[in-house]
Each structure stands twice: as C-alpha cells, then as structure tokens.
Amino acid sequence: DLSGDFVDPSGRVLGQHSGFDQFTIGQRRGLGIAFGEPRFVIRIEPESRRVVLGTHDDLACTTLVADGVSWLADDVPSSFECLAQIRYLHTAAPARVEVRGDEVTVRFEQPQFGVAPGQALVLYDGERVLGGGWIRQGLPTHSAEPITAAS
C-alpha cells in the first residue's frame, strides 16, 4: 500500500492520496485535492508515504547534487562556471560546478524551479556539451529539507 497523507511544509495534514508513486516534484495538476491557491508537490517522502505540498516559491532551488556524471570534456577542473540544464526544454542557467569523482554540486546564480531527483543534468560551455549526470537531490532555497528521490 503506497497511500498516505498530503502535508504542508510544516507537516500539517491536508488530505489523503492513493499512492505517492503517482506524483512528481513540481506537479500541480491532478492532485485530487483543491486549495484556494495553487499548490505544488515540493517533496515526496517514501518512508512515511507523505507527499509535501507547497507554493511555487517552495520549489525554488539554488543548489543540486548529481551523480553518475560522465564527461565529454578532457581535463575537467574541480570547480568551474558553465550553463546547467535540469530537464528537457528547460533553458540552461548560469551555475558554478564543484566536481568530486562522479558527483557534482551545482550552485545556480538564480533559483531554478522543478529540480527533481532522477532528472538528467547536462552541463554546457556555450553550446558545447561538457558532460552530464543524474540529479540525486535538490536543496530548496526556502527550506532546510532536501528534495530527494522517491525510491
């Protein structure tokens, strides 16, 4: 049984859902619950089967961690600036990247919305692909709780 509670960022129960596996970070439509203002899935907690709902601002993310990174560029420095794309059709955004083995920490100049674990991260120097990996977690701007994968 994957059913559980919808909660707000403070943990207050807002309603119930029939399975946390039916939701994705950033989802707004099809929640099956109505509010006076738009609510978005900002976090999925598989252990407790809770789906955390918040405002669009709660989705703002300035830092992410990705792993499984493969490089097309030679001699990648341990820290560099580039453009980072967090999903298909998303505009690549200026960021600073710190490399540790096959893991990177990406710090964006401006908050990005809808950073979701499991999505592809692609790093560019202009139009040249430097490398890419898989987003493991996003660190929201307005929350101490990381956005982690629902696995």
**Number of separate strands:** 11
What's the CATH architecture of the largest domain?
Answer: Beta Barrel
Give me the strand/helix succession.
Answer: EEEEEEEEEEE
Number of domains: 2
- CATH C-level category of the largest domain: Mainly Beta
Question: Order of strands across the widest beta sheet?
Answer: 5-8-7-6-9-10
Main sheet characteristics = 6 strands, antiparallel, barrel
Low-confidence stretches: none
Alpha-carbon Rg, integer: 16 Å
Overall outline = elongated
Q: What is the fold-level CATH name, i.e. the topology of the largest domain?
A: Elongation Factor Tu (Ef-tu), domain 3
What is the helix content? under 10%
Terminal residue distance: 14 Å
Report strand %: over 45%
Mean pLDDT: 90
Number of helical runs? 0
Q: What is the CATH homology-level superfamily of the largest domain?
A: Translation factors
Main structural class: mainly beta
Output the keywords.
151 residues, mainly beta, SH3 type barrels, Elongation Factor Tu (Ef-tu), domain 3, 6-stranded antiparallel barrel
Account of the protein in words:
The radius of gyration is 16 Å and the shape is elongated. 29% of the residues are buried. It is mainly beta. 0% of the residues lie in helices and 52% in strands. The chain folds into two domains: 51 residues, SH3 type barrels (Roll); 90 residues, Translation factors (Elongation Factor Tu (Ef-tu), domain 3, Beta Barrel), CATH 2.40.30. A hairpin with a 2-residue loop joins strand 9 and strand 10. The model has no long low-confidence stretch (mean pLDDT 90). It has a six-stranded antiparallel barrel with strand order 5-8-7-6-9-10.
